[in-house]
Input
Amino acid sequence: MKTNMTWQERFGDRALIACPTCDTVHVEPDVPDNHQALCCRCGHVLAAPRENAQVRVLALAVTSSILMIAAVFFPFISLDAGGLHNKTSIMDAVLAFSTGLMAPLSLAVALMIVLIPAARLLAIIYTLWPMVRGDRPFPLARKAFGLAERLRPWSMAEIFVVGVAVALVKVAGLATLNLGPAFWAFVGLVVVTVFQDTSMCRYTIWKWLEKTTN
Amino acid sequence: MEMAGKNDELITARAAGLLACTRCGRVHRREATACQRCGTTLAPESRRPLQAVWAWLLAGIIVYIPANIYPMLRTSTLLENHESTIVGGAIDLLHYGNYGVAAIVFIASILIPVGKFIAIGYLALSIGRAGILSAHSRHRLYEVVEFIGRWSMIDVFVVAILSALVQLGTVATINPGVAAVSFTLSVAFTMLAAQSFDPRLIWDADKEPL
Ligand SMILES: [Zn+2]
Ligand SMILES: [Zn+2]
Output
């Protein structure tokens, strides 16, 4: 491998990107829609643009927001046991830890299942709205999109849904459980979010932000 | 796609004397201080050190111990008060014949956390050493660890739901135990350990022909 050439001799004025996982330099790919650019060394997906991806992601994000509102405000699960009845909303599940020492855990659960997913949705809508309309990006778009990316692992709505399923089995022998509309809204939210995250091409969005911000 | 330079040469940004943005991948000259594409501040040393990984990992292991000693769930019924730990909860499920759910709880609360401690420790130790696993396999391991770690939170969410739902006065109440707090901390700390691990270190040490 020759490393004695300067970067200018090697690459001229062409824009370069490095693979985030192995640091291998690539000349910025011009990827046609519905194709993928993979890192030559480790195979990481560098770019995966799709036709109309931005419109689709924006539509999915707006749908998710509506489902999120429904999920928080409608009854989530209700329980019947020996003539007793108890209803639970997502807020009640969040507040389950709110007594004494465990109060910070309430906040953590609220963040993971409601607040962070909601913040990501807002940040994505804020970033993509002008992109879809063909306008200049909003002033904080780069910060907002960076935040949405950084928060991604901490958004745990889908894990919560599996948790609900486990809880259902755990009390199944003792009581009858009924799933309310909010549960189905929440399941819908999880499904829509998975589609949204897989059809979004980060590379295309960052490149658009660079072109229109500077 | 087109490779940088000649087709038979691959070079890392660091070897080329360049600086790559960790968020969007845009490559800059060494002198650059902020990414032109996404606005992130660029650190002059392009690799994140391993100290942070070890610190978060250690913290995660330490708080995982009380998470297994103290009760996760406190159940009171007319007849008895029962406290169950993480392992105890999984065993109870086995006794009731719920093998599938017992397996989910066991995998999410024991297998994944312990597996993650070992995997992150192995990855951090293997940097700069000739390992048994190739760079490709170690990178795959890292991706699995990053993807799967969050799923440990299942049991905490189960506790939250049960505690909210089963509040039937004297007939039956379920309340969270203090282990829920330390378990959540353990998951968060190991997630931070995985996030502060720089996967490029795996490839830097890779001596295989490219
Ligand atoms: Zn790569
Ligand atoms: Zn950048």
Remarks:
- Residues B 21, 23-24, 26, 35, 37-38, 40 surround zinc ion (ligand 2) (CB under 6 Å).
- The beta strands of chain A are 16-18, 25-27, 37-38, 45-47, 77-81, 84-88, 176-179.
